[in-house]
User: Fold Suppressor of forked domain-containing protein from Populus trichocarpa.
Amino acid sequence: MASVDNGAQSETKDQATTSTTAATDPYNVEAAEILASSAQHMPIAQAAPIYEQILSLFPTASKFWKQYAEAHMAVNNDDAIKQIFSRCLLNCLHIPLWRCYIRFIRKVNEKKGADGQDEIRKAFDFMLGYVGADMASGPVWMEYITFLKSLPAQTAQEESIRMTAIRKTYQKAIITPTHHVEQLWREYENFENSVSRQLAKGLVSEYQPKYNSARAVYREQKKYVDEIDYNMLAVPPTGSFKEEQQWMAWKRFLTFEKGNPQRIDSVSSNKRIIFTYEQCLMYLYHYQDVWYDYATWHAKSGSIDSAIKVFQRALKALPDSDTLKYAYAELEESRGAIQPARKIYESLLGDGVNATALAHIQFIRFLRRNEGVEAARKYFLDARKSPDCSYHVYVAYALIAFCLDKDSKIAHNIFEAGLKRFMHEPVYILEYADFLSRLNDERNIRALFERALSSLPPEESVEVWKRYIQFEQTYGDLASMLKVEQRRKEALSRTGEDGASALESSLQDVVSRYSFMDLWPCSSKDLDHLARQEWLAKNINKKAEKSAVSNGPATLDKIPAGLASNSNVSGKVIYPDTSQTRLEFHLAQQRLGSRLLLTHCRILLDWHPMYLMRC
Assistant:
């Protein structure tokens, strides 16, 4: 007895540990498997809450639905079983689950005579309508044919109806690429020959090419299906190698099906594509791109209503996906359903208090497109009162006023109003400067830069200085250009360790001044050389100091006076400090532009392995 009690206590402890793990990591697959396994050994009253918990996180896990249904079947709880199947069947197109459903239907109806047989037949038709295209559906087709053959026929008419139903089922099965397609073909030949050899010859000849096509497609399709893990549970993407492999496997399979390899009619082909998407979503349930692809495929196929239903299901699965909401709103707007689209935008805004800047901006654009200038203006005036309204909203509405409404005065007023609130935002300053550049308003651009640079701290003013210099290169004369460059050096020299050296003029300044777009006043070899020199100039002094400190004063005392100044050259090799790499890239970009930045990157990448080898 003691050992039994200890075992029960251990099992209870394991369940508690698993429940804790599931609480901290709800999509822990291993924990879900353990919980489901433990539920199989519990009374249904205790197991049901566990299954509900698991299925709330994994609603497309057909194996858990099957276990849940079988637990109720074991105690003949028919009402609960029907409820379970109504919740899961259409979202879990997996053969084992559907065969469980057929077993239940047959069990319930086997003793109800002709009415029961009719219900079973309808259930088979219902099942094959949804999962008959599955490669693993061969046994289902065979089971249905066996059931049809077992039906009693009292009259010649009933026999004729029965034989016609068997023939039609065989003919559907043999043109479906399944693992059992060859066996089904042999059985079909035997069936037709048993009925009438004369009639069989014509029917077999008619269906032979269709069967051959199905068999050939099956062999090709199997290559794609073999790459898919049908035991995988749907979890949010983590970027793991296995997940990415499965994503690619499903994408390849979908592409294969969309190519209609069997060259069947468009209705049948579309039905197979829908089936493949539905199966894919059982495993990639949390992938936004799969939902989007499925919805847009429906839309491109002309079935807008189906596309809308897919988007609605997608947002139920991924309620926090703003991307899918925008895509859904776009579909509604594109078909002229403005009010449904507006409701989607309003759902993105929520109560308006915690709405994102992007939600405000996109709603303003939507209003401008569909309700006009005044509606957009009214909403902007309300949105800007929100404490969470960022500079992006001001920039977006100003550009709407300028580009769409052709009203530069209102746009200018909006930028000025925003400047009182966002003077500390360099990006806002640059957007305002771009707007003024479009107006060719030289005086106000210069005034804007001066106002901004007088209030921005030096470390946040780098991009503004860069744009100011570009402005002077375009609008100013040589004196004003040189003056701004010198002012920038003085301002930025206080932010780094370079000190006085940063104030000196260099050839890089000339290169920056006299370049234009992708045109440079020197060769690529010269750019390489300049980048190397710039890097050395910024790092050699720091490395020399570190080297001296590490060697210590006693070491310096032993070096002859005539060689002391060159000790770092004849001693240790100076290695690049990789912790400063990002800063160096940024500085290189400021000084020499994108072309020199790429050169600079290449030099650093080339040098590091060399130094590592010397170490």
Q: What stands out?
A: Residues 433-505 form one domain. The CA atoms of residues 353 and 386 lie 7 Å apart. DSSP finds 29 helices and no strands in the chain.
